[in-house]
Amino acid sequence: MTSATAAHPDDDALIETCRQKSLELLRTNLSPGGILAATPGAQAESRGYAAIFGRDAAVCAIGMALSGDAVLEREAATGLVTLAGYQATNGQIPKFVDLRKQEADFWYLGCIDATLWWLIALDYLDRRDPAGALRQRCASEVAKAIQWLGAQEHQRFFLLQQNEASDWADIMPRSGFVLYTNALWYCVKQLYALARSEETRANFNQLFHPFSAALAEYRRARLLTHYVQRKAKNRGLYLSFVNFSFFGDEGDVFGNVLALLCGLADREAARRTLRALDRARVAEPWPVRVVCEPIPAGDPLWRAYMSRHLQNLEWQYHNGGIWPFVGGFWVAALAQAGEGDRAGAELAKLARANALDNWSFNEWLHGRTLAPRGMRGQSWNAAAFLIALDAVRECGAGFALRP
Question: What is the pLDDT of residues 291-303, one digit of tens each?
Answer without folding.
Answer: 999 999 999 999 9
